Fold this sequence. Notes:
Helix content is 67%, strand content 5%.
Amino acid sequence: MKIKNVHGNTLDLLGEAIVAGQYAAGAVLPSEPLLGEELGVSRTVVREAVKSLVAKGLLRTGPKVGTRVQPAEAWNWFDPDLVAWQSKAGLTRDFLRDLHELRVVVEPAGVRLAALRATARDITEIEAAFAGMTHAVEHGGDYVTPDLRFHQGLLRASHNRMMMQMSKALAAVLRVSFELSTLKPERAGKSLPQHRAVLDAVIAGDPKRAERAILVLIDDAGREIERVLSSRRKLPSLSAPARRLIART
Length: 249
């Protein structure tokens, strides 16, 4: 795991505090000297952390108004740091609902285009990601990372420049879905044929079949997430490495 420097740690502390609600929307943050004293860092470190939080949409600054917390609607929810802070504070039903609805809107459209436009290189990359998922199920290891590559590969295969950029922005929020929907090891194995159906439809150049297949996959993952939430089991932290499957015996 990457070890963060003083700036990164300070950014995490302030970001986590805001996302956890320790500073409500509209609240004014303490002055830089006070925050520095509280966090044990220099005023310069605090200033840089605040700048980063402004860029992520969590804070705004202005003359005579101080540094104020922005409402959650203004936050950049595609930012990996923000998603990790929300994971640590607790994944809410609203957050997971928004994530599921985003997938339902974006991925079917991307997969339809992929079925029409995917190149041989695109298919090779998606096949390699699927092979990584299969290896994790059969022999143990990281399943979530190749799963993420699979879905990002599909969006890149759309060859829509905005969709291709969205594949990068979606990485953090998609990981939330994959981590939750595969908490049960058998769930990962069950999803393999569903992923294969999507890939086969893209290879066949059949956009309608590809769209139906990805919707089956998304809906099944959504139902699994609902079961996890209903069980009240501890949810994974996205600040930790992806959970590894245990090899089949």
